[in-house]
Amino acid sequence: MSKGKRYDNEPKLNIKKVIAVIILIAVIIMVAYTIKTLMTKEETNTGKISALNYFPVYTNGKWGVINSLGKMTIEATYDEMILIPNKTEDVFICTYDVNYETGEYKTKVLDSKNKEIFLDYDLVEPIYNHDKNQNLWYEENVLKVKKDNKYGLIDLNGKELLACKYDKIEAIKEISNSLLIQNEGKVGLCNSEGSIIIDPNYKSIIAIAEDYKNGYIVVDQDNKFGVIDINKSIILQPKYQDILPVYGNGKYVVKQEGSYKIIDKDENVLLADGFDTIEQINGDKLIIQKNGKFGVINLQKDEIIKANYDEIKYISDDYYIAKQNGKYGIISTVQEKQGLPFEYTSITYRKTAKIIEAEKEDNIETEIYNENLELKKTGIITECDETKGYIRLRENGEYHYYNLKFEEKEAKEFLTTNNLFLSKKNGKYGYVDKDGNVKVDYIYDDATEQNSYGFASVKKDGKWGSIDGEGKVKQEPKYTLENNLKIDFIDKWHIAEDLNANYYTDL
Q: CA spacing 20 to 30 A to 172: which of 119, 193, 415, 432?
């Protein structure tokens, strides 16, 4: 009994206090989480919470960083442009101590608090790449790092993806998620997550066509060509004199005994003559080059389009874009269907939107066709958002919105995050809300819709400025911007003439 009595005299838990402590801990955690969230998110001028984006900014001859609210995140004190691999992440690469004679330089990486990060490395750089039009871009979620004169990879949180043991790391140009790794003059391949796809045993590696999912052409030390896919499987052994970077439906173009032929992955010969080279494979149809001209045949050697053209590009089984005598047209492969005459300076096919844009010399307006070559609209395309499914077209001085079926819609149906919408009255532009109430008077000669950061560009007396999502003037019109291909503002900052550089300035 004494044992029981002793336990009866021990302190008992106060349940109310325990619950209070648990609630207090929960509140602390929630507050901490909220503070952390607010470090990367802020109230935008559209009144909605949105993750911040970051951009290089140039002012007073120096470089810094602004966020998508127009606030200076890194003061403009650097001589070299600050590189931002992923605009949604506060990872800013600053270059300094540049020796232009030797090409040597140093880098440091800052976050949005101006704190230096990734200090374990001698050098940190983005991985540069470009598309077929030479537009610069970076691999968004991976960085190249250097330590003890060797290169490796980390992600934007600093996690090591690939140890620093390579002499060189660079992207395969025009192809995403494909990084060449080099040691002792031999080349291999990894992806953006640092996974080794091909060990560094080869003389060179290139991608097949425009998608890394098609695999890679490898060249061994004996100058023999083979194919390896993204799953590390050898599709074609390195035994060919050449393999062209052309692929379609499991077909490859290889060279053996001095001539090209088309084979499948089991090395069955599908076509061995009737062409000099193959430019593109689309199902059973092949864009060929013969005697310096281009045409189309099928695997049965039937001539679909005679090889009489300077260029040919695939649209569909029914249509091909072709160039002849310096002009573009569209050839129909179906007798009952008409093409387009050879009278255009350029013809572009947007595969996702399934529209064709044809432009004539000395005509600033674009003819827009659907896949059946039905002329749907003529005007100036100011925006084509294939993700949201709309085209913004300027026709006779007026802006109109269409879905990809060319049905006219109101801007608010596509610009769902906007709270101001461009409106025109008596030849002047203003802004209304989604209910049509005027929020900005009709005083501007030209204007744009709100961008994704809530700012709109406005033009008055030949000069551009900006307003925010409440219609407040953020920059009085003062810039001519006559050489800018795109007019865009973030607060008082306007995008620079060189869109490839993608920075903002107040100059």
A: 119
Please give the pLDDT value at position 32.
Answer: 43
SS3 413: helix
Asked if 87 and 80 touch (Cβ cutoff 8 Å), the reply is no
Question: What is the pLDDT, as a whole number, of residue 335?
Answer: 87
> Taking the CA atoms of the chain, what radius of gyration do you get in angstroms?
29
The DSSP code sequence of 32-93 is: HHHHHHHHHEEE-TTSSEEE--EEEEEETTEEEEEETTS-EEEEEEESSPPB-S-TTS--EE
The pTM of the whole model exceeds 0.85:
yes
Q: Residue 472 and residue 79: Cα distance in Å, rounded?
A: 33
Contacts of 489 (CB under 8 A, 6+ apart): 451, 455, 456, 457, 464, 465, 466, 474, 475, 495
- 354-373 per-residue burial string, b: 16 or more CB within 10 A, e: under 16: ebbbbeeeeeebbbbbbeeb
Q: Which residues of the chain have pLDDT under 70?
A: 1-50
Judge whether 354 and 404 are in contact, CB under 8 Å.
Answer: yes
pLDDT of residue 48: 52
- Residue 289: which residues within 8 A CB-CB, separation 6 or more? 275, 276, 277, 278, 279, 307
Within a 10 A sphere around the Cβ of 25, how many other Cβ atoms? 10
pLDDT digits (tens, 9 = 90+) for 180-193: 999 999 999 999 99
For the chain, count helices (H), then strands (E). 2, 49
User: What are the backbone dihedrals phi and psi of residue 450, each rounded to the nearest 5 degrees, phi first?
Assistant: -60, 140
Beginning with the edge strand found earlier in the chain, give each strand of the sheet holding 319-324 in spatial order. Answer: 311-314, 319-324, 327-332, 340-344
Q: Can you give the three-state secondary structure of 243-289, one letter per residue?
A: EEEEEECCEEEEEECCEEEEEECCCCEEECCCCCEEEEEECCEEEEE
Among the listed residues 502, 457, 452, 453, the one whose alpha carbon sits nearest the alpha carbon of residue 481: 457
Amino acid of residue 178: S
* Cross-strand partners of 72: 66
C-alpha to C-alpha distances, 97 to 84, 247, 267, 311, nearest whole angstrom: 19, 46, 55, 47
Token digits for 423? 């409106």
Q: How far apart are CA 507 and CA 498, in angstroms?
A: 13
Nearest C-alpha neighbor of 237 from the set 247, 225, 221, 253: 225
Starting from the edge strand earliest in sequence, which strands make up the sheet with 123-130, in order?
123-130, 136-147, 150-155, 160-166
Distance CA(269)–CA(240), nearest Å, equals: 14
Residue 42 to residue 489: CA distance in whole angstroms: 18
What pLDDT, on a 0 to 100 scale, did the predictor assign at position 34?
40
Query: Could you tell me the CA-to-CA distances from 287 to 210, 274, 314, 348 in Å, in that order?
Result: 16, 12, 8, 18
CA dihedral for 167, 169, 170, 172, sign (positive or negative): positive
